[in-house]
UniProtKB/TrEMBL annotation:
<dbReference type="InterPro" id="IPR028098">
    <property type="entry name" value="Glyco_trans_4-like_N"/>
</dbReference>
<dbReference type="Pfam" id="PF13692">
    <property type="entry name" value="Glyco_trans_1_4"/>
</dbReference>
<dbReference type="Pfam" id="PF13579">
    <property type="entry name" value="Glyco_trans_4_4"/>
</dbReference>
<protein>
    <submittedName>
        <fullName>Glycosyltransferase family 4 protein</fullName>
    </submittedName>
</protein>
<feature type="domain" description="Glycosyltransferase subfamily 4-like N-terminal">
    <location>
        <begin position="16"/>
        <end position="202"/>
    </location>
</feature>
Length: 423
């Protein structure tokens, strides 16, 4: 098949997040399909931006995937700058629609940009090509900005998002969701649930060292921080990922104040909250916390394999009733970490896999107590937890498995859709 994949934030191992579009596309290319990725030249979630873009789009081949980068303005935060960035990307893709159809001849068009407005552009392209239209759900917009950021449901941006979400459920031939508990919400907004398929996040086995081989060496500052904590006899709690409000890192810092000297916290990453969190660490004298800049994705396995417990936390917000699908949790489990999960959600992979301990969200005392409980276990018991997590991911959450599930959903419902179109 020829697959046209719209993902505003698509990245690659060299550029950074988002990784899911790259990994799915790479598996499809390996299976003999052709993939055209459409992405913006600037994204706040990437570690690096593609170079040489502008004033027009630039094409690039990455591991067999055809990327087309559209020049978009840089922005910070979630204000008007980001809205302009979104509008610029969608307008350019819409303008490029006929050329894309002639060049790619897509059988499948996937709208997958986190925000739902790309469904209008994808629908136009799919109509021109008589292709199967797929809507891939990362988060529920506008519900996510409403419940996570306090946006009014009557804000113009929320109203536009709602119109787009409703259109997606009405017009898509297939809806693929990473979140597992979305049935009721989507049905309320017009989705025929026969179109819905759940394909969660996962990991790529290629990113992980084979048994008996060493992972790429850690950057010196990270290796030194871990070695110092180990030499002091501390149990190391690790966090690797984005540093934004949804990640509940204030709760982790509050827990670090309560946890005592037996634990040392090593945080690796970047994000909107990084500077403020660094100030907290310095102003409150949190000597048992080390913050370090983000490391390349290739070094994540070595980092996680060097910690004793991995932390992942969430805010206490209603949106998580629809389920969660965090990338970093898959990494934690693949690394064989015992996990402290601070969450209240519609699903809990840590509990399912029995690979750690789950405590309530936004509760520093519960997090501190949970970490001490895990730290008190014999190392062999934590290792057994980690082994269960790794087995769970390998069975259910590798991208070769997920890519096949995705295309099986497209093929099954797509065949029905194409028959209906022909009729």
């Amino acid at each position: 098949m020829n697959i046209l994949y719209l993902n505003h934030y698509a990245g690659s191992p060299a550029l950074g997040m988002e990784y899911r579009p790259y990994y799915l596309a790479r598996e499809w290319v390996r299976a003999g399909h052709a993939v055209q990725m459409l992405a913006a030249s600037f994204s706040h979630v990437r570690a690096r931006q593609p170079q040489g873009v502008g004033p027009g789009p630039r094409d690039e081949l990455i591991d067999g995937i055809d990327y087309r980068w559209y020049p978009t303005p840089a922005y910070q935060g979630n204000g008007l700058g980001r809205v302009r960035n979104i509008a610029s990307f969608l307008w350019q893709v819409r303008r490029d629609a006929r050329r894309l159809v002639e060049r790619v001849k897509p059988d499948v068009v996937i709208a997958s940009s986190t925000y739902p407005m790309d469904i209008w552009v994808a629908r136009h392209i799919a109509g021109l090509a008589n292709a199967v239209l797929v809507y891939e759900v990362h988060d529920l917009w506008p519900l996510s900005p409403i419940e996570l950021s306090g946006m009014s449901p009557w804000h113009p941006f929320a109203l536009v998002c709602q119109a787009a979400e409703d259109a997606a459920y009405r017009d898509a031939d297939v809806v693929v969701s990473m979140l597992p508990r979305v049935d009721e919400h989507m049905a309320e907004h017009g989705l025929d649930l026969r179109k819905l398929f759940i394909v969660p996040n996962g990991i790529s086995p290629d990113d992980w060292p084979a048994p008996g081989t060493a992972a790429p060496a850690l950057r010196d500052d990270v290796a030194q921080a871990l070695a110092a904590a180990r030499a002091a006899g501390r149990t190391i709690v690790g966090y690797a990922g984005s540093m934004g409000r949804p990640n509940a890192l204030d709760t982790l810092l509050d827990a670090a104040k309560l946890a005592g000297d037996g634990l040392h916290f090593v945080l690796v990453g970047d994000g909107h909250e990084r500077a403020r969190l660094q100030r907290r660490i310095a102003e409150e004298g949190l000597a048992n916390v080390s913050w370090l800049p983000p490391i390349p994705k290739a070094q994540i396995p070595a980092f996680l394999q060097a910690v004793d417990i991995a932390y992942i936390g969430w805010q206490r917000v209603p949106i998580y009733r629809f389920g969660i699908a965090p990338n970093k949790l898959m990494d934690y489990m693949m690394a064989g970490c015992a996990v402290l999960h601070s969450v209240e959600a519609g699903n809990d992979p840590v509990a399912e896999a029995r690979c750690g301990l789950t405590v309530p969200p936004e509760d520093p005392q519960a997090v501190a107590d949970g970490l001490r409980q895990l730290a008190a276990l014999p190392a062999e018991e934590r290792a057994a937890m980690g082994a269960r997590g790794r087995a769970f991911v390998q069975a259910e959450h590798t991208y070769p498995v997920l890519a096949r599930r995705f295309l099986a959903a497209v093929s099954r419902n797509g065949a029905i859709a194409m028959h209906a179109h022909a009729a």
